[in-house]
Design a protein that fits this description.
The structure is a single chain. This protein has about 160 residues and is of the alpha/beta class. The protein is about 40% helix and about 35% strand. It is built from 3 helices and 5 strands; from the N terminus they run αβαββββα.
Length: about 160
């Protein structure tokens, strides 16, 4: 019985010491714990909130008290038909998500000039499962928002850590 308890204790210590963390979680610099997003769609803001929440940060309601301001410009989401069936129905789509962003501090001093993020995905549209494909497209869109947010947060972390040195 003592060896079982000792084995469980050792396993718990090893697991806690291995650096395990939740997928999508970041180690945020202190001035990124409170982020204000200016502009952008509701879906993009929701992804920022989820990503920051997983990393012990939060989305600020205003510039006041925010450590960093992310300004979103020219956010577009396009859907394009890539191929058609013999009946003229669309078989394959390409989703194109693009935005530009700038990073500033709460005093509006520019930390990073305007940068672009562009993400493309394509998927097959099976005509027999139209309802399921709508759900698949919504899932792909959410993944694209999440990828854009991860890209912006990673870039912001680099800029803030470089400025701190």
């Amino acid at each position: 019985m003592l060896t079982k308890n000792a084995a469980v204790l050792v396993m718990a210590l090893l697991l806690s010491a291995c650096g395990y963390h939740l997928r999508g979680a970041f180690q945020l610099p202190e001035n990124m714990k409170n982020v204000y997003v200016e502009g952008g769609s509701g879906a993009l803001r929701e992804q920022f909130s989820q990503v920051l929440g997983a990393s012990s940060g939060q989305l600020a309601g205003s510039r006041k008290g925010a450590g960093i301001v992310i300004k979103i410009f020219n956010e577009t989401f396009n859907r394009r038909v890539l191929s058609l069936s013999s009946r003229g129905k669309s078989n394959e789509f390409e989703l194109d998500y693009r935005l530009e962003y700038e990073l500033a501090n709460a005093g509006d001093a520019l930390l990073l000039e305007r940068q672009a993020v562009e993400i493309r995905r394509d998927y097959y549209n099976d005509q027999q499962f139209v309802i399921a494909k709508d759900s698949e497209e919504a899932g792909i869109r959410n993944e694209m928002y999440e990828q854009a947010v991860h890209s912006i947060v990673n870039r912001a972390r680099v800029v803030l850590e470089a400025g701190a040195k």
